[in-house]
Amino acid sequence: MQIETPSKTSISFEDFKTEVLKDYKIAVTSRECSLLGRREVLTGKAKFGIFGDGKEIPQLALAKAFKNGDFRSGYYRDQTFMMAIGALSIENFFAGLYADSSIENEPMSGGRQMGGHFGTHSLNEDGSWKNLMLQKNSSADTSPTASQMPRLLGLAQASKIYRNVDGIEAEKFSDNGNEIAWGTIGNASTSEGHFWETINAAGVLQVPMVMSVWDDEYGISVHARHQTTKENISEILKGFQRDEENKGYEIIVVNGWDYVALIEAYEKAAEIARGSHAPVLIHVRELTQPQGHSTSGSHERYKNEDRLAWEREFDCNVKFREWVIQNNFSTQEELENIDQEIKKQVRDGKKAAWTACTQPMVIKQKELLPLLENAAKSSDKKDAILSLKNELAKIKDPIKKELLIAARKSLHYLIRSKSDAKTQLIDWIDAYTSESQSEFSSNLYSESKHNALSIEEVKPTYSNEARLVDARIILRDNFDKIFETYPETLIFGEDTGKIGDVNQGLEGLQNKYGSLRVADTGIREATILGQGIGMAMRGLRPIAEIQYLDYILYALQTMSDDLATLQYRTKGKQKAPLIVRTRGHRLEGIWHSGSPMGALVHLLHGIHILVPRNMTKAAGFYNTLLEGDEPALVIECLNGYRLKEKLPNNFGKFKTPIGVVETIKEGTDITLVSYGSTLRLVEEAARDLEELGIHAEIIDVQSLLPLDINKDIVKSVEKTNRLLVIDEDVPGGASAYILQNILEVQNAYLHLDSKPQTMTAKEHRPSYGTDGDYFSKPSAEDIFEKIYGIMNESDPEQYPALK
Ligand SMILES: Cc1ncc(C[n+]2csc(CCOP(=O)(O)OP(=O)(O)O)c2C)c(N)n1
Ligand SMILES: [Mg+2]
Predict the structure, then answer these.
(1) Does residue 77 line the site of ligand 1, with CB under 6 A?
(2) Cα 377 from chain centroid?
(3) Residue 138: helix, strand or coil by DSSP?
């Protein structure tokens, strides 16, 4: 018998039945994992659980339409989808719940993220790209609601670039841009700004993005009436619907328990998105949460009896089962057998995951117990150590912390003893700590041979008749060389395209390289950043431009939560070598001269933060970064574009090293450490001080993250014995961060004859106008007087008080 399947292609009843039963098994497996997962938390084996129950069936439909090369950017409900694409086994699921720190057992994040945060591996062991076209891909989830949205835009836009830009080596990433980026989000999370910004941007850009909203009417306890106008996201998005005259979205509404309608909906969406690159929104309604939001609390507290009864009836797995039986794909009895078989599989998988997770520590426990026993013998606190040992012996499946507590506390009782047993214990503690620490702390930055720190400096070279030019010309000509050399590079931002950025650093380049590679965007910093992340995750080399440093705060959440954590949260299995270009520090007024570098440094560990003092240095950073495989933020000096710099003749080749400081003036009396625009004032003050016989040494840190990896600043302090750090941030901002490094990491306190100090802007934002600047930020006079004060204090005779 031939039947019409939802896909409209007629296949045999038997084939379709096989497909349906396969789906049934995945749905039941996923549900059983959720049910057992909750029990594991309630019995204390796992700390927290957030599961995909009630959302199984739409995810099966999504998985059917999902092809190799496609990408998902979603959230914690998507376990069924991950199982359906073969990326999440029962064992993997429980390993996530148990925070198994082995990336083999827990491939999503090596235990770094809570279960329910999914991702696939884009990188080989050596950090190079896998062939993403041979697998189904999921970008790594993050917990903040809607944080998956900005990245989703970029994942979709990459297809557009691959389809329309010639000359890019695309084999591992794209087949003529046919790949879809599939987003998922909960109904309540559509209230976030990121959702709206992304929806609008994808409509403007016309990229192959299929956005699913899993609508269960709630966001934890808060009902849709408090979340969404008209309580209906597809209704209020109707203005985005495309028609004959206008491009826009295709909007599809479907019930989450209707297997056939869901398959049709996803097939239709895929066809539209792949074919025409139009974005699609699928509003999946009438979903449920059989066990409530998460393992913290129960939904009986906020759902009434009617709702709970409705959820039981419309549970998508229940409805699917009814449909399977009604349509004679199986019988009640057969399904019961399948259910029983799956229950056993899940139980077995759970046990296997627990054993795999705990076994390494059981082995370590066996190693440690005799060491403690021996150590006790050589101690006058024998009983205390034996008691620690006996407590440890009682623990059936110890965790690393319990092992180390027993070992380290025992060592505290051995301070005055000397024995081989003590030495052995120390060796065990050191080895186990370092081995375990890297399981939790590796991969914040790239560990591949292309990491940015291993890229060597190449100095700019100049011809004899090198002209002095406006500094922006150096950026422009260097970008020109970059775009010519690397077809996979592209830059985009507000006013970036047609006019070539607000300071003309890209003048004429859109004409030369096209409006996809040098592009204007809407005013939407978070999704400019997201475009960059998503495209970088698919092998392109985007440069996302944030017009002014002051506006980076709009993108900061995405930079901090997504970009900065990506390598870390995937234990090195995904990367986004995105360059963020912006301009800042000193110009005019509260929102055009901020320099919140401390705030950025603190939030962006995982991203290199570079603060070039001029445009040659900045251009050199871009050249370095494009050879590396890491994300970075480059802050050009806003007041530096029209200053004159000498025109190099090796554009695209000269490279500014990352993490390396530069001494820009030598001196013997005091070390001045600064960066960016402030340096020019420091230089002015130092020139004036020379006339009084004070010889200051000036160091440009150039790179705030990482900072002075060669520990060069202390070498200067050794010589001068005095230290002042100057910047335009608030007191206690980046200057304090720099000082902490010099004193604590570089031990400069050993060489100081004067109190080490910082000089910063005032606590408030910089006021407008020249006087506003003068009274808000350090001036050359302030710097002069500060330094002079330090010299006066050290030698009042030679340097009598100024006042
Ligand atoms: C930015 C942010 N705010 C709050 C939270 C806490 N939180 C986690 S899930 C959630 C509700 C999300 O509801 P919805 O989007 O409808 O997804 P559902 O869980 O119902 O599938 C909230 C408030 C968070 N993770 N991130
Ligand atoms: Mg919800």
Answers:
(1) yes
(2) 50
(3) strand
